[in-house]
Amino acid sequence: MTTRAMKALCIGSVALNLFLLGAIAGGAYRWFAARQVAQVALGARPAPPTALRFAAQDLSPERQRQFQEALRQARREARPLAQQAREGRREVLRLAAAEPFDRSALDAALANTRAADRAVRERIEAAVADFVATLTPAERTVFAQSLALRGQWRQPPGNRALAPNPNPNAASEASAR
Helices in the chain by DSSP H: which ranges? Predict the structure, then answer.
């Protein structure tokens, strides 16, 4: 290859590489810009946490600690049941794939797993109920509204079940007008 051909090849290679780098940079810029516009259009607020442990976040720090400790204790007590439920799910999967298929064994494994899951849920719900019993009426209202946003009682955004109005006369006064 001649020197002149090598120069032309190098210049062409540099031009192609610059074109590709420009295209990549431009694409990245447009992607980030579109993403930022989408976040601004959506309000750019992160989604609120939906785990049950965040249900007390609108209460005082002391009440939050009490609720978190009650949940921790309930989960500690339910740990063997949760393990039993996990093992039951593994057994269900094993029985579903087994040859020959034994429907009665599968039904029994499903029933055992369901019972263990139900027992775990009952422990957690009892802990929440015990915590609610310690709250003042105003705190209960705030907590109920928070439960509509978090945990297993979470409601769809347009259909949030809120706590009853703490002033029952306000509704009757408004309807009388």
Answer: 3-41, 61-97, 103-133, 137-147, 168-176
